[in-house]
Amino acid sequence: MNIVGEKTIRLAHGNGGRLMRELIDRVFARHFSELGPDKTLDASPFSLPTGVAITSVDAFTVQPLEFPGGDIGTLAVNGTVNDLAVSGARPHFLTLSAILEEGLEIAVLDRVVASLAAEARRTGVKIIAGDTKVVPRGHGGGIYFTTTGIGVRNTGVTLGLDRIQVGDAILVSGPIGDHGIAVMLARQEFDLHGNIRSDCAPVIDLAEAAAALGAHFMRDPTRGGLAGVVNEIASATGFGLRLDETCVPIRDEVRGVCEILGYDPYTLACEGRVVAIVAQTTAREVLAAWRDLAGGESAEIVGTVTNPPARVVLATSAGGERILPELEDEPLPRIC
Amino acid sequence: MNIVGEKTIRLAHGNGGRLMRELIDRVFARHFSELGPDKTLDASPFSLPTGVAITSVDAFTVQPLEFPGGDIGTLAVNGTVNDLAVSGARPHFLTLSAILEEGLEIAVLDRVVASLAAEARRTGVKIIAGDTKVVPRGHGGGIYFTTTGIGVRNTGVTLGLDRIQVGDAILVSGPIGDHGIAVMLARQEFDLHGNIRSDCAPVIDLAEAAAALGAHFMRDPTRGGLAGVVNEIASATGFGLRLDETCVPIRDEVRGVCEILGYDPYTLACEGRVVAIVAQTTAREVLAAWRDLAGGESAEIVGTVTNPPARVVLATSAGGERILPELEDEPLPRIC
Fold first, then answer.
1. How confident is the model at residue B2 (pLDDT cuts 50, 70, 90)?
2. Chain A residues lying within 8 Å of B47, measured CB to CB
3. Using CA atoms, how far apart are residues A228 and A225, in angstroms rounded to an integer?
4. Domain ranges in chain A?
5. Count of alpha carbons within 13 Å of A50, Cβ hemisphere only?
6. Do B14 and A333 lie within an 8 Å CB cutoff?
């Protein structure tokens, strides 16, 4: 993919003049087509169905830009779409900002934007506004995206930390840690190879199925992983959470890499999973619904909400117990 | 401003765990207070007045982060708010993403976020969603912000490129190029010093005054400057635009720096100016209204929309004429 013979991003691609216009036309507008904004507008009108409007924003700085199972484009769509989905909302629109680094191969940008467009079509969102900046070599990461999602809460859905009760079941929609390990292996910093693919995917169907069955609370375990979500729930509700290690789905390969590198799989990011807190009486029903959906085949009931104190206890496969903390001082940079 | 004794941003401030939560609490949430989002939510509900909803997104990568007359915080508010304002909309909400670089002084972040919060209060927008990422040293610019603005079009306002007619007057709300020169001098790359302050400011009042008087089209001349806006109009409408150099307000100091460094002031970014195209019959009225408003004291009528061909002609002070092109290959990086 050439832009008037150019193969890499130059500072002039961000100057607001002809080269920037051409870059936008030939990469972003070309892939977005009917999905994208009117380029003659500085600001775009949009129209939501009636209901409670919901918004969420995420920046994406993943390194490398492309990894097995996804790239920064699929991540930029799903990361934001999923925040809306687990809040009980249907995503409708995204805005997109791209901070490009001088020297970036335009072929890479082209692939990633194509992939972002495909994922937006798959999830049913339109990209209604965009912005492109170029930073000098050594001041960026190739591509940084930020997406803001705008959607509408689904009718009748009432999710909230305040709906969580002692005795509720904790469900996870699939194996944890795939995204984190796929990205780390793709960096080739370690002499490790594997077939792990990122779980990066929209969770709209999974979230809507659980919400329709009266789920009390949902969250997608991205940065901070499952450990982050359950600790956040403990700290916000004052309840304890008890996870059964033997029930938490973790691929053998993920577990193996974690053991070698010293990572805790519970703190690794997922990008296509849902953690749901549901009444014990409906837990099996939610589980069955999830297992019938794409991406939910390996869903499990992994634990229970318990009485205070507010802490997360992991019942280990060896028959013991340990406190599962949130991430403290670990850097774990640029996995999303 | 210390965060548990820390003075600089570390990678762990972006890991989704305790340090990230503390950073958000002690910097972002502290300054945003009633202005900011509910931190327990991944996605935030918002409610707009009835009318046409409008959105716009901008990334901010300015270097240095602080400059005379503003900083990346004031810029992140005004850059997006002004895109909505010149589209005839009243801004209500912003989402904010922050990409921080390892090693950033937390004191700098604290000042810039305080300044962003103050500007949001001044412009009447709430910050309803946020996200923070940390990238390794040498992969960022200290702070990159992206803001998405959400607003509602003011009743009765009809602005559009299609409303521009031959004979219309071209107005500028104040001196051009102040922001671009203020930022470039603040970089101290040249042995030049001056008292030029950025014009960074909200243009909500200026835009509403012009729209109320029936302006046909408005734009804020940011990247690409006045030259960019008028060339965009020429190219979109097929009309010519004629500017009278003697009428275009440019500070002597800006002109002086441009002469020394070889910059064209017409291509320099403004961050608090409006270019309006209005019917010749109402031009004086808009001018008078602007001159009564803060930031519009030096407004001028600077030219006229003419018959095709689509090009911008500058009538020079020497009595000649020259074509005023948009930016071509100039890098001009990181002024916004």
1. very low
2. 52-53
3. 5
4. 11-153, 161-323
5. 1
6. yes
CATH class for the region spanning A11-153:
alpha beta
The answer to whether A331 contacts B236, with C-beta atoms less than 8 Å apart, is no
Of B11, B136, B146, which has the smallest distance from its Cβ to A59's Cβ?
A: B146
Scanning every residue of chain B, which has its alpha carbon at the shortest distance from the alpha carbon of A329? B12
Q: Among all residues of chain B, which has the CA nearest to that of A233?
A: B40
> Cβ of A97 and B57 within 8 Å?
yes
pLDDT band at A169 (very low <50, low <70, confident <90, very high): very high
> What DSSP string runs through B122-191?
HHT-EEEEEEEEEE-TTSS-SEEEEEEEEEEEPTT----GGG--TT-EEEESS-SSHHHHHHHHHTT-SS
Q: Find residue B313's DSSP bridge partners.
A: B242, B323
> Would you call A149 and B329 a contact, using CB atoms and an 8 Å cutoff?
no
First to last CA, chain A: 26
CB < 8 Å to A46, chain B: 53-55
* pLDDT of B86 over the 90 cut: yes
- Please write the tens of the pLDDT for every residue from B190-228: 777 788 999 999 999 999 999 999 999 999 999 999 999
Residue contact A16–B56, C-beta within 8 A: no
- pLDDT (0 to 100) of residue A102: 97
Q: How many CB pairs under 8 A join A and B?
A: 255
Write the pLDDT tens digit of every residue in B290-336: 999 999 999 999 999 999 999 999 999 999 999 999 888 877 768 88
Using a CB-CB distance cutoff of 8 angstroms, which residues of chain B are in contact with residue A5? none
CATH class of A161-323: alpha beta
Element spanning A219, H or E = strand A217-219
Mutation for B interface: A50, A57, A78, most B CBs within 10 A? A57
Tens digit of each residue's pLDDT (9 = 90 or more) over B135-159: 999 999 999 999 999 999 999 999 9
Cis peptide before B309 (omega within 30 of 0): yes
B333 with A11: CB under 8 angstroms?
yes
Distances in whole angstroms, Cα of residue B333 to Cα of each of A16, A37, B68: 10, 25, 18
Place of tokens 């604290």: B110
Residues B17 and A330 sit within 8 Å (Cβ to Cβ): yes
Tell if the CB–CB gap between A16 and B331 is shorter than 8 Å.
no
Q: Min CA distance, B101 vs chain A (Å)? A: 9
3-state secondary structure A291-314: HCCCCCCCCEEEEEEECCCCCEEE
- Give the tokens for residue B79: 């850059």
